[in-house]
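User: I'm curious whether this sequence folds into something compact or stays loose and floppy. Could you predict its structure so I can see for myself?
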Amino acid sequence: MEEITDQMADAMIAEVQRRDAEQAAAAQAAAASIPGAAKGAALPPGHALLSGKTADEVLADLNKSPLFMTSLEENDDVAALQALAYEGTARENGEEFKERGNECFKAKMYADAKEFYGKGIEILAVEEKRRAKGEKTFHTEKAKVEGEGAAEEGEEDEERDVEVEDDEEEIAKQRSVLESLYVNRAACHLELGNFRSCWTDCGLALRLNPKNLKAYYRSARALLKVGRVAEADDACARGLALDEGNKPLQAVARDIVEAAERADAKTKREQERKAGERRREMLLRAALAARGITTRTTEQPPEMEDARMRLVPDEEDPASSLSFPAVLLYPLQMESDFVKAWNETECVGDHLGYILPLPWDQKGEYASPAGVECYMETAAGGLVKVGKKASLLKILSGGSVEVVDGIVRVYVVPVARAKGWVEEFKVKKAAEKR
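Assistant: Here's the prediction. I'll summarize afterward.
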C-alpha cells in the first residue's frame, strides 16, 4: 500500500468536512423544529478529530494506523496491537511460539522453526523496549469481582480479566523466555548457514543473560564457520570461563585449535611464497643489470597470464640464463605472433624458421627468413635493424633497445617494402613529438 501523501490527506479532510457539514445542517434543521432545543450542539466526531489540525498532523495520525502504515516493524504501537491478536499474556504467547518452534526444529524444519521463534521474539521484545523507555508494562490475570447482587445470600463473585502491572518476577520470566527464543533462533540460523544472524541473536541473548552457555557455543560455531578464528576463540573462552567442563564448548575449542593451526600453516606458506617471489625478483633484477639490459614498465601493462621474464631453468640460480616473452609484429598487415619463452641465447632467425611462412600471407611476402627484415624500437623512439643471426642477449645489451613491460617486440617487414615502412614510421614518430 502506498504511503499517504499530503494531497491524499487534504482530499480526505475535505471529504470528511463535506460529510460533516451535511450532517450538521441536517441536525440543525431537525433541532430547529423542536421547541426549546439547545443551541451550539457539539461537532460531529470526525470533524472534532480533524478540527484545528494541519494536513501534516492528520497525515502523521493516519500513518500511525495499521491500515495506512508502511513500516509496521518499526512501530512499537503496531507491534503491541499485533500481540493483542493472540489470546493470553505476552509471556504465554512467547512460550507458545517457542514450543511450536521446538517441534519444527526437532523435525529439522529449520526455516519454519525460525519463523515461530521470531514471532515470539516480536511479542516479548516490544515489552522490553517499553521498559527501556521507562514505561510500565502490564498483563491480564483472572480475578473475582463482586457482582451487583453479591450482597444477596448464595450469589457468587464474577470472574473477570484484570490488568495487572508486571512485577519483577513476571519481568524476569518474560526475559527468560525471550532469551531462550534468541538462542533457539540462533540455532536455526546456524543450521541454515545464516552465520551473521546467528551470532547477532546470540549477542542479544547475552545482553539478557551474560551466562548463557548456548549463546557462547553457537556464536563460536558461527564465527568459526566464516574463518573468524580469533573471535570464535574469544566467545568459546568466555563460555568455558563460566563452565570449563561444558562438553559442547570443549568440542568447539578443539576445532578452534585445529583451525588456528591450519590458518597459521597457511599464513606461513603465504609468507614463504612472498619471500620467494621477492628473492626471485632480486635475482632477476641483478641478472638484467649485469647484462646491461634496460627495462621499463608502463601504467597499464598487458595481461600475459604466466608468461614473464625469468631465469631458466632455475629462477633461484644466478647462473641460469634469461628468458623473455616476445611478440613478432607484422605492421603492414596488422598481424602478430606471440612467443612465450625466448631465451637470451636464441637469435631472431631461430624463431622465424618455424613461424614462416605465414598462413594468411597470400602474396608470399613472408615465405622465409631471407625475405624479411627485422627491426626493434629504441628507447629514444627510433628504429634499429636487427640481424637475424644475432642473439637476443647481444641485441638487448647494446644499450639502445629497452624491454617494455617485460616483453620483447620485433617488427617483421618484407625486404621489398622495408624502406617505405621505415620512412612512414619516422614520419609518425615525428608527428607524435610535435
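Summary: Confidence is low (pLDDT under 50) at residues 1-5, 34-50, 62-74. The radius of gyration is 43 Å.
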